[in-house]
Design a protein that fits this description.
With about 500 residues, this protein is an alpha/beta fold. It has 3 domains: about 100 residues, Roll (Urease, subunit C, domain 1); about 110 residues, Diaminopimelate Epimerase, Chain A, domain 1, CATH 3.10.310; about 200 residues, Metal-dependent hydrolases (TIM Barrel, Alpha-Beta Barrel), CATH 3.20.20.140. It is about 30% helix and about 25% strand. The protein is built from 18 helices and 21 strands. The strands form 4 sheets. It has a 7-stranded mixed β-sheet with strand order 3-2-1-4-19-20-21, with no helix packed on it. A 6-stranded mixed β-sheet has the order 6-7-8-9-11-10, sandwiched between helices. It binds zinc ion (2 copies). One zinc ion binds next to loops.
Length: about 500
Amino acid sequence: MHYADLVIEGNIYTMDESKPFARSVAIKGDRIIFVGDNANDMIGKETIVVNAEGKSVLPGFIDTHVHFVGTAISRFDDLDVFGIPSISEILEAIKRVKKPEGQWIRVRGFDDSMVAEQRYPTRWELDSVAPKNPVIVKRLDGHSCVVNSLALDSIGIGPEMRGVDIDEHGRITGILRAEANEVARRSSEYEATKEEILRKLFDVSYEALRSGITTIHALEGSTGDVSQVKLLMDAKLPLDFVIYFQTTDVREAIALNLPRIGGCILVDGSMDSHTAAMFEPYNDKRDSRGVLYFRDDELKDFVLNAHKSGLQIAMHAIGDAAIEQLLDAYEYALSEYPREDHRHRIEHAEVPTEDQIRRMAKLGIGVAVQPPFLYYWDMEKFYIKRLGPERAMRLHPYRRMLEMGARLAGGSDSPVTPMNPIIGIHAAVNHPVKGNSIELHDALRLYTRDAAFFSFEERRKGSITEGKVADLVILSDDIFKIRLTELNKVKVETVVKNGKIFR
Ligand SMILES: [Zn+2]
Ligand SMILES: [Zn+2]
Protein backbone atom coordinates (compact mmCIF):
# COMPACT_ATOMS: atom_id res chain seq x y z
CA MET A 1 0.00 0.00 0.00
CA HIS A 2 1.87 3.02 -1.25
CA TYR A 3 -1.10 5.29 -1.66
CA ALA A 4 -0.93 8.66 0.03
CA ASP A 5 -3.65 10.05 2.29
CA LEU A 6 -3.22 13.51 0.86
CA VAL A 7 -1.59 14.92 -2.26
CA ILE A 8 -1.17 18.65 -2.86
CA GLU A 9 -0.29 19.89 -6.34
CA GLY A 10 0.86 23.39 -7.23
CA ASN A 11 3.81 25.71 -6.61
CA ILE A 12 5.54 24.12 -3.68
CA TYR A 13 8.24 26.28 -2.14
CA THR A 14 9.88 23.69 0.08
CA MET A 15 12.43 25.90 1.93
CA ASP A 16 14.70 22.87 1.54
CA GLU A 17 17.89 23.99 -0.23
CA SER A 18 18.49 20.57 -1.75
CA LYS A 19 15.14 20.70 -3.58
CA PRO A 20 13.76 24.25 -3.34
CA PHE A 21 10.80 23.83 -5.69
CA ALA A 22 8.38 21.00 -6.42
CA ARG A 23 5.02 20.50 -8.09
CA SER A 24 3.65 17.77 -5.89
CA VAL A 25 3.79 16.71 -2.26
CA ALA A 26 2.36 13.46 -0.88
CA ILE A 27 1.46 12.84 2.75
CA LYS A 28 0.70 9.67 4.65
CA GLY A 29 -0.31 9.76 8.29
CA ASP A 30 1.48 12.72 9.81
CA ARG A 31 4.51 12.51 7.49
CA ILE A 32 5.59 13.87 4.14
CA ILE A 33 6.40 10.80 2.03
CA PHE A 34 7.14 12.36 -1.33
CA VAL A 35 8.21 15.72 -2.75
CA GLY A 36 8.72 16.00 -6.52
CA ASP A 37 7.26 16.55 -9.97
CA ASN A 38 4.24 14.33 -9.74
CA ALA A 39 2.76 11.94 -7.24
CA ASN A 40 0.21 10.39 -9.61
CA ASP A 41 1.11 6.81 -8.77
CA MET A 42 0.47 7.54 -5.09
CA ILE A 43 -3.09 8.65 -5.69
CA GLY A 44 -5.53 5.90 -4.81
CA LYS A 45 -9.32 5.86 -4.40
CA GLU A 46 -9.13 7.22 -0.85
CA THR A 47 -6.46 9.84 -1.47
CA ILE A 48 -7.56 13.45 -1.05
CA VAL A 49 -6.08 15.55 -3.85
CA VAL A 50 -5.81 19.30 -3.34
CA ASN A 51 -5.20 21.46 -6.37
CA ALA A 52 -3.24 24.55 -5.33
CA GLU A 53 -2.60 25.83 -8.85
CA GLY A 54 -1.75 29.56 -8.87
CA LYS A 55 -1.28 29.56 -5.10
CA SER A 56 1.76 28.75 -2.99
CA VAL A 57 2.43 25.83 -0.71
CA LEU A 58 4.89 26.40 2.13
CA PRO A 59 5.96 24.69 5.35
CA GLY A 60 3.70 25.48 8.32
CA PHE A 61 4.73 28.73 9.97
CA ILE A 62 6.52 28.87 13.31
CA ASP A 63 6.02 31.91 15.56
CA THR A 64 9.07 32.03 17.83
CA HIS A 65 7.82 34.63 20.30
CA VAL A 66 4.33 34.43 21.76
CA HIS A 67 2.96 34.98 25.25
CA PHE A 68 0.29 32.43 24.61
CA VAL A 69 -1.52 32.28 27.95
CA GLY A 70 -1.43 36.08 28.07
CA THR A 71 -2.93 36.14 24.58
CA ALA A 72 -5.71 33.80 25.73
CA ILE A 73 -6.40 35.88 28.84
CA SER A 74 -6.48 39.09 26.79
CA ARG A 75 -9.51 37.63 25.01
CA PHE A 76 -11.56 38.20 28.16
CA ASP A 77 -11.39 41.92 27.39
CA ASP A 78 -14.51 43.46 25.88
CA LEU A 79 -12.84 45.40 23.10
CA ASP A 80 -9.55 45.44 21.18
CA VAL A 81 -8.73 48.91 19.83
CA PHE A 82 -5.41 47.89 18.24
CA GLY A 83 -5.24 49.54 14.82
CA ILE A 84 -8.19 51.94 15.35
CA PRO A 85 -6.61 55.16 14.06
CA SER A 86 -8.15 57.88 16.27
CA ILE A 87 -9.38 58.53 19.79
CA SER A 88 -12.77 59.65 18.47
CA GLU A 89 -13.27 56.28 16.76
CA ILE A 90 -12.05 54.44 19.86
CA LEU A 91 -14.61 56.35 21.95
CA GLU A 92 -17.33 55.42 19.46
CA ALA A 93 -16.33 51.76 19.76
CA ILE A 94 -16.42 51.92 23.57
CA LYS A 95 -19.88 53.48 23.37
CA ARG A 96 -21.10 50.45 21.41
CA VAL A 97 -19.99 47.97 24.11
CA LYS A 98 -23.15 46.95 25.95
CA LYS A 99 -22.65 45.72 29.48
CA PRO A 100 -24.90 45.81 32.55
CA GLU A 101 -24.59 48.95 34.66
CA GLY A 102 -21.65 48.85 37.07
CA GLN A 103 -19.71 46.13 35.24
CA TRP A 104 -16.19 46.74 33.99
CA ILE A 105 -15.62 47.59 30.35
CA ARG A 106 -12.12 46.31 29.59
CA VAL A 107 -10.37 47.71 26.54
CA ARG A 108 -7.00 46.52 25.30
CA GLY A 109 -4.53 47.32 22.53
CA PHE A 110 -4.32 51.11 22.94
CA ASP A 111 -1.18 52.96 21.84
CA ASP A 112 -1.00 56.76 21.92
CA SER A 113 1.66 56.76 19.18
CA MET A 114 -0.77 55.00 16.81
CA VAL A 115 -3.73 57.40 17.02
CA ALA A 116 -4.07 60.62 15.02
CA GLU A 117 -4.33 62.72 18.20
CA GLN A 118 -0.98 61.32 19.49
CA ARG A 119 -2.20 61.28 23.08
CA TYR A 120 -4.22 59.24 25.58
CA PRO A 121 -7.97 59.72 25.96
CA THR A 122 -8.95 61.49 29.20
CA ARG A 123 -11.16 60.13 31.92
CA TRP A 124 -13.81 62.72 31.03
CA GLU A 125 -13.91 61.48 27.46
CA LEU A 126 -14.37 57.94 28.76
CA ASP A 127 -17.09 59.19 31.15
CA SER A 128 -18.96 60.70 28.22
CA VAL A 129 -19.26 57.38 26.36
CA ALA A 130 -19.64 55.05 29.36
CA PRO A 131 -21.01 57.00 32.32
CA LYS A 132 -22.47 53.96 34.09
CA ASN A 133 -19.59 51.51 33.86
CA PRO A 134 -16.05 51.57 35.16
CA VAL A 135 -13.77 51.63 32.09
CA ILE A 136 -10.11 50.71 31.71
CA VAL A 137 -8.19 51.33 28.47
CA LYS A 138 -4.93 49.39 28.64
CA ARG A 139 -1.87 50.47 26.74
CA LEU A 140 -0.33 47.79 24.54
CA ASP A 141 3.02 47.61 26.32
CA GLY A 142 1.42 47.00 29.72
CA HIS A 143 3.12 49.98 31.35
CA SER A 144 0.16 52.36 31.53
CA CYS A 145 -3.62 52.66 31.22
CA VAL A 146 -6.45 55.19 31.34
CA VAL A 147 -9.55 54.81 33.50
CA ASN A 148 -12.78 56.78 33.83
CA SER A 149 -14.19 58.42 36.97
CA LEU A 150 -16.28 55.43 38.07
CA ALA A 151 -13.20 53.22 37.79
CA LEU A 152 -11.14 55.64 39.90
CA ASP A 153 -13.83 55.50 42.59
CA SER A 154 -14.21 51.75 42.53
CA ILE A 155 -10.47 51.05 42.68
CA GLY A 156 -9.89 53.76 45.27
CA ILE A 157 -7.02 55.49 43.50
CA GLY A 158 -6.14 58.95 44.84
CA PRO A 159 -3.65 61.60 43.72
CA GLU A 160 -1.10 60.46 46.29
CA MET A 161 -0.45 57.10 44.63
CA ARG A 162 2.71 56.76 42.52
CA GLY A 163 2.02 57.01 38.79
CA VAL A 164 -1.25 58.99 38.94
CA ASP A 165 -1.20 61.69 36.27
CA ILE A 166 -2.34 65.16 37.41
CA ASP A 167 -3.17 68.07 35.07
CA GLU A 168 -2.27 71.73 35.54
CA HIS A 169 -5.47 72.32 37.56
CA GLY A 170 -4.52 69.57 40.00
CA ARG A 171 -7.12 67.12 38.65
CA ILE A 172 -6.55 63.40 38.04
CA THR A 173 -6.58 62.89 34.25
CA GLY A 174 -7.23 59.15 34.42
CA ILE A 175 -3.83 58.21 32.96
CA LEU A 176 -2.12 55.77 35.29
CA ARG A 177 1.45 54.55 35.21
CA ALA A 178 3.78 52.62 37.52
CA GLU A 179 2.09 51.45 40.74
CA ALA A 180 -1.27 53.03 39.91
CA ASN A 181 -1.32 51.21 36.56
CA GLU A 182 -0.62 47.89 38.24
CA VAL A 183 -3.32 48.42 40.86
CA ALA A 184 -5.87 49.38 38.20
CA ARG A 185 -5.04 46.42 35.97
CA ARG A 186 -5.24 44.01 38.86
CA SER A 187 -8.53 45.32 40.25
CA SER A 188 -10.20 45.34 36.84
CA GLU A 189 -9.09 41.85 35.85
CA TYR A 190 -11.77 39.36 34.93
CA GLU A 191 -11.60 36.46 37.37
CA ALA A 192 -11.68 33.52 35.03
CA THR A 193 -12.00 29.92 36.11
CA LYS A 194 -9.45 27.40 34.89
CA GLU A 195 -12.06 25.96 32.50
CA GLU A 196 -12.74 29.40 31.03
CA ILE A 197 -9.02 29.98 30.45
CA LEU A 198 -8.69 26.55 28.89
CA ARG A 199 -11.50 27.37 26.47
CA LYS A 200 -9.71 30.59 25.48
CA LEU A 201 -6.49 28.63 24.97
CA PHE A 202 -8.34 26.53 22.40
CA ASP A 203 -9.84 29.63 20.78
CA VAL A 204 -6.45 31.27 20.30
CA SER A 205 -4.95 27.97 19.12
CA TYR A 206 -7.48 27.96 16.28
CA GLU A 207 -6.73 31.63 15.62
CA ALA A 208 -3.05 30.74 15.27
CA LEU A 209 -3.82 27.80 12.96
CA ARG A 210 -5.99 30.01 10.77
CA SER A 211 -2.96 32.32 10.41
CA GLY A 212 -0.92 29.37 9.17
CA ILE A 213 0.96 28.80 12.44
CA THR A 214 1.61 25.16 13.29
CA THR A 215 4.25 25.64 16.02
CA ILE A 216 4.49 28.30 18.71
CA HIS A 217 7.35 29.19 21.00
CA ALA A 218 5.42 30.13 24.13
CA LEU A 219 7.13 32.39 26.69
CA GLU A 220 5.20 31.93 29.92
CA GLY A 221 5.09 32.41 33.67
CA SER A 222 7.50 34.25 35.95
CA THR A 223 9.92 33.42 38.74
CA GLY A 224 8.02 31.55 41.43
CA ASP A 225 4.84 31.28 39.36
CA VAL A 226 4.65 28.09 37.37
CA SER A 227 0.86 28.03 36.96
CA GLN A 228 0.70 29.30 33.36
CA VAL A 229 3.50 26.97 32.27
CA LYS A 230 1.72 23.98 33.82
CA LEU A 231 -1.57 25.00 32.28
CA LEU A 232 -0.01 25.02 28.83
CA MET A 233 1.92 21.80 29.36
CA ASP A 234 -1.25 19.96 30.39
CA ALA A 235 -3.66 21.43 27.85
CA LYS A 236 -3.91 19.21 24.80
CA LEU A 237 -4.01 21.92 22.17
CA PRO A 238 -4.20 21.34 18.42
CA LEU A 239 -0.75 22.71 17.55
CA ASP A 240 2.83 22.29 18.80
CA PHE A 241 4.37 24.30 21.62
CA VAL A 242 7.97 24.95 22.55
CA ILE A 243 7.69 26.20 26.11
CA TYR A 244 9.97 28.75 27.76
CA PHE A 245 9.53 29.32 31.49
CA GLN A 246 10.33 32.95 32.27
CA THR A 247 12.02 32.26 35.57
CA THR A 248 15.46 33.29 36.82
CA ASP A 249 15.48 30.29 39.16
CA VAL A 250 17.21 27.59 37.14
CA ARG A 251 15.93 24.85 39.47
CA GLU A 252 12.33 25.71 38.58
CA ALA A 253 12.91 25.01 34.89
CA ILE A 254 14.85 21.83 35.58
CA ALA A 255 12.13 20.59 37.94
CA LEU A 256 9.75 20.64 34.97
CA ASN A 257 12.25 18.82 32.76
CA LEU A 258 12.37 21.76 30.40
CA PRO A 259 15.50 21.92 28.21
CA ARG A 260 15.30 25.71 28.08
CA ILE A 261 14.69 28.78 30.22
CA GLY A 262 13.79 32.44 29.89
CA GLY A 263 11.75 34.38 27.35
CA CYS A 264 10.86 37.99 28.02
CA ILE A 265 13.01 38.12 31.13
CA LEU A 266 13.75 41.82 31.02
CA VAL A 267 17.36 42.87 30.64
CA ASP A 268 15.88 46.28 29.78
CA GLY A 269 12.42 47.80 29.21
CA SER A 270 10.73 49.06 26.05
CA MET A 271 11.17 51.96 23.65
CA ASP A 272 7.53 52.96 24.24
CA SER A 273 8.23 53.91 27.81
CA HIS A 274 11.83 55.11 27.24
CA THR A 275 13.08 52.18 29.31
CA ALA A 276 14.96 50.23 26.61
CA ALA A 277 18.61 50.72 27.65
CA MET A 278 20.60 52.80 25.16
CA PHE A 279 24.25 53.89 25.01
CA GLU A 280 23.11 57.41 24.05
CA PRO A 281 20.14 59.37 25.46
CA TYR A 282 16.71 59.21 23.84
CA ASN A 283 16.14 61.75 21.12
CA ASP A 284 12.87 62.88 22.72
CA LYS A 285 14.00 62.55 26.33
CA ARG A 286 17.56 63.78 26.57
CA ASP A 287 17.91 62.99 30.27
CA SER A 288 17.16 59.30 29.79
CA ARG A 289 19.11 56.33 28.45
CA GLY A 290 16.60 53.76 29.67
CA VAL A 291 17.00 51.14 32.37
CA LEU A 292 19.06 48.00 32.90
CA TYR A 293 17.14 45.73 35.25
CA PHE A 294 20.11 43.51 36.20
CA ARG A 295 23.50 44.40 37.63
CA ASP A 296 26.28 43.00 35.43
CA ASP A 297 27.23 40.36 38.00
CA GLU A 298 23.61 39.28 38.57
CA LEU A 299 23.05 38.75 34.87
CA LYS A 300 26.34 36.90 34.48
CA ASP A 301 25.45 34.64 37.40
CA PHE A 302 22.05 33.73 36.03
CA VAL A 303 23.31 33.12 32.49
CA LEU A 304 26.30 31.10 33.70
CA ASN A 305 24.14 29.02 35.99
CA ALA A 306 21.54 28.24 33.31
CA HIS A 307 24.22 27.61 30.69
CA LYS A 308 26.17 25.28 33.00
CA SER A 309 22.96 23.35 33.62
CA GLY A 310 22.77 22.64 29.90
CA LEU A 311 19.72 24.83 29.28
CA GLN A 312 19.02 26.90 26.18
CA ILE A 313 18.54 30.52 27.29
CA ALA A 314 16.36 33.34 25.94
CA MET A 315 16.26 36.90 27.29
CA HIS A 316 14.64 40.20 26.32
CA ALA A 317 17.11 42.95 25.30
CA ILE A 318 15.96 45.83 23.08
CA GLY A 319 18.44 48.71 23.35
CA ASP A 320 22.14 48.57 22.42
CA ALA A 321 23.25 48.90 26.07
CA ALA A 322 21.09 45.92 27.07
CA ILE A 323 22.26 43.85 24.10
CA GLU A 324 25.85 44.60 25.15
CA GLN A 325 25.23 43.52 28.73
CA LEU A 326 23.59 40.28 27.62
CA LEU A 327 26.27 39.50 25.02
CA ASP A 328 28.91 40.02 27.71
CA ALA A 329 27.09 37.53 29.93
CA TYR A 330 26.76 34.95 27.12
CA GLU A 331 30.39 35.43 26.14
CA TYR A 332 31.52 34.94 29.73
CA ALA A 333 29.48 31.75 30.18
CA LEU A 334 30.72 30.35 26.86
CA SER A 335 34.35 31.07 27.71
CA GLU A 336 34.03 29.45 31.16
CA TYR A 337 32.08 26.44 29.90
CA PRO A 338 32.46 26.13 26.13
CA ARG A 339 29.48 24.33 24.61
CA GLU A 340 28.75 23.57 20.98
CA ASP A 341 25.29 24.18 19.66
CA HIS A 342 23.82 25.96 22.69
CA ARG A 343 21.41 28.03 20.55
CA HIS A 344 20.99 30.75 23.19
CA ARG A 345 18.77 33.60 22.07
CA ILE A 346 18.30 37.34 22.36
CA GLU A 347 14.68 38.45 22.09
CA HIS A 348 14.01 41.66 20.10
CA ALA A 349 17.56 43.14 19.77
CA GLU A 350 16.00 46.13 18.04
CA VAL A 351 18.96 48.51 17.68
CA PRO A 352 22.20 46.52 17.75
CA THR A 353 25.53 48.04 16.74
CA GLU A 354 27.66 46.60 13.95
CA ASP A 355 30.06 45.21 16.54
CA GLN A 356 27.22 43.52 18.42
CA ILE A 357 25.96 41.84 15.25
CA ARG A 358 29.48 40.51 14.71
CA ARG A 359 29.53 39.13 18.26
CA MET A 360 26.08 37.51 17.87
CA ALA A 361 27.31 35.72 14.77
CA LYS A 362 30.60 34.68 16.36
CA LEU A 363 29.04 33.41 19.58
CA GLY A 364 26.21 31.66 17.72
CA ILE A 365 23.49 33.63 19.50
CA GLY A 366 20.14 33.48 17.72
CA VAL A 367 18.12 36.67 17.41
CA ALA A 368 14.35 36.33 17.77
CA VAL A 369 13.04 39.34 15.83
CA GLN A 370 9.52 40.74 15.48
CA PRO A 371 9.15 42.34 12.04
CA PRO A 372 5.46 43.22 12.70
CA PHE A 373 6.68 46.02 15.01
CA LEU A 374 7.88 47.79 11.86
CA TYR A 375 4.47 47.36 10.28
CA TYR A 376 2.39 48.71 13.14
CA TRP A 377 4.62 51.45 14.58
CA ASP A 378 5.34 54.48 12.45
CA MET A 379 8.93 55.13 11.43
CA GLU A 380 8.67 58.94 11.70
CA LYS A 381 6.23 59.32 14.55
CA PHE A 382 7.69 56.61 16.72
CA TYR A 383 11.14 55.23 15.88
CA ILE A 384 12.81 58.39 14.57
CA LYS A 385 11.19 60.41 17.33
CA ARG A 386 12.64 58.09 19.97
CA LEU A 387 15.99 57.31 18.38
CA GLY A 388 16.81 60.28 16.16
CA PRO A 389 17.34 59.90 12.40
CA GLU A 390 20.84 58.47 12.52
CA ARG A 391 20.37 55.80 15.16
CA ALA A 392 17.03 54.82 13.62
CA MET A 393 18.98 53.54 10.60
CA ARG A 394 20.16 50.70 12.86
CA LEU A 395 16.58 49.61 13.53
CA HIS A 396 16.01 45.88 12.99
CA PRO A 397 19.04 45.52 10.67
CA TYR A 398 17.98 42.16 9.24
CA ARG A 399 20.04 42.37 6.08
CA ARG A 400 23.25 43.21 7.91
CA MET A 401 22.55 40.46 10.45
CA LEU A 402 22.16 37.83 7.74
CA GLU A 403 25.19 39.11 5.81
CA MET A 404 27.33 38.81 8.91
CA GLY A 405 26.11 35.30 9.66
CA ALA A 406 23.76 35.90 12.59
CA ARG A 407 20.81 33.55 12.87
CA LEU A 408 17.34 35.09 12.90
CA ALA A 409 13.82 33.82 13.47
CA GLY A 410 10.53 35.70 13.36
CA GLY A 411 7.70 36.18 15.81
CA SER A 412 4.78 38.37 16.84
CA ASP A 413 5.22 38.96 20.60
CA SER A 414 1.46 38.33 20.75
CA PRO A 415 -0.58 39.82 22.42
CA VAL A 416 1.57 42.87 21.50
CA THR A 417 0.90 42.26 17.79
CA PRO A 418 -1.46 39.63 16.34
CA MET A 419 -0.10 36.16 15.56
CA ASN A 420 0.20 36.67 11.81
CA PRO A 421 3.38 35.57 10.00
CA ILE A 422 2.17 37.06 6.69
CA ILE A 423 2.43 40.54 8.23
CA GLY A 424 5.89 39.69 9.57
CA ILE A 425 7.07 38.49 6.16
CA HIS A 426 5.63 41.60 4.52
CA ALA A 427 7.35 43.87 7.06
CA ALA A 428 10.76 42.20 6.73
CA VAL A 429 10.65 42.59 2.95
CA ASN A 430 9.17 46.12 3.00
CA HIS A 431 11.37 47.43 5.82
CA PRO A 432 10.98 51.19 6.48
CA VAL A 433 14.79 51.45 6.35
CA LYS A 434 15.46 50.34 2.77
CA GLY A 435 18.95 49.01 3.48
CA ASN A 436 17.67 46.76 6.27
CA SER A 437 15.10 44.85 4.23
CA ILE A 438 15.63 41.24 3.18
CA GLU A 439 14.64 39.07 0.22
CA LEU A 440 11.31 37.27 0.30
CA HIS A 441 12.99 33.88 0.48
CA ASP A 442 14.97 34.96 3.55
CA ALA A 443 11.85 36.44 5.15
CA LEU A 444 10.09 33.09 4.69
CA ARG A 445 13.03 31.34 6.34
CA LEU A 446 12.47 33.45 9.47
CA TYR A 447 9.12 31.73 9.98
CA THR A 448 10.00 28.24 8.75
CA ARG A 449 13.40 26.58 8.51
CA ASP A 450 15.37 28.99 10.67
CA ALA A 451 12.62 29.10 13.28
CA ALA A 452 12.74 25.29 13.50
CA PHE A 453 16.48 25.56 14.13
CA PHE A 454 15.79 27.76 17.18
CA SER A 455 14.10 24.82 18.91
CA PHE A 456 16.46 22.07 17.68
CA GLU A 457 13.67 20.79 15.42
CA GLU A 458 15.26 21.39 12.02
CA ARG A 459 15.32 17.66 11.28
CA ARG A 460 11.59 17.29 11.95
CA LYS A 461 10.02 20.47 10.59
CA GLY A 462 10.64 23.83 8.94
CA SER A 463 10.75 22.58 5.35
CA ILE A 464 8.74 20.41 2.98
CA THR A 465 11.06 17.43 2.93
CA GLU A 466 10.41 13.71 2.73
CA GLY A 467 10.28 12.24 6.23
CA LYS A 468 9.41 15.50 7.97
CA VAL A 469 6.17 16.21 9.82
CA ALA A 470 3.37 17.16 7.43
CA ASP A 471 2.79 20.73 8.60
CA LEU A 472 1.98 22.90 5.57
CA VAL A 473 0.12 26.00 4.51
CA ILE A 474 -1.50 26.94 1.23
CA LEU A 475 -1.57 30.67 0.52
CA SER A 476 -4.09 32.45 -1.71
CA ASP A 477 -1.48 33.67 -4.21
CA ASP A 478 1.79 32.65 -5.75
CA ILE A 479 3.83 34.86 -3.43
CA PHE A 480 6.87 34.88 -5.69
CA LYS A 481 4.76 36.34 -8.50
CA ILE A 482 2.88 39.14 -6.74
CA ARG A 483 4.17 42.61 -5.96
CA LEU A 484 6.23 42.69 -2.77
CA THR A 485 4.25 45.66 -1.45
CA GLU A 486 1.10 43.53 -1.62
CA LEU A 487 2.32 40.58 0.41
CA ASN A 488 0.16 41.75 3.32
CA LYS A 489 -2.95 41.00 1.24
CA VAL A 490 -2.08 37.31 0.92
CA LYS A 491 -4.49 35.02 2.78
CA VAL A 492 -3.84 31.68 4.41
CA GLU A 493 -6.34 29.38 2.69
CA THR A 494 -5.54 25.93 3.98
CA VAL A 495 -3.50 24.60 6.88
CA VAL A 496 -2.29 21.03 7.18
CA LYS A 497 -1.24 20.05 10.70
CA ASN A 498 0.25 16.59 11.27
CA GLY A 499 -1.10 15.52 7.89
CA LYS A 500 -4.69 16.63 8.61
CA ILE A 501 -6.38 19.47 6.78
CA PHE A 502 -7.44 22.05 9.32
CA ARG A 503 -9.43 24.08 6.80
ZN1 LIG B 1 10.10 41.14 25.42
ZN1 LIG C 1 7.63 39.17 24.67
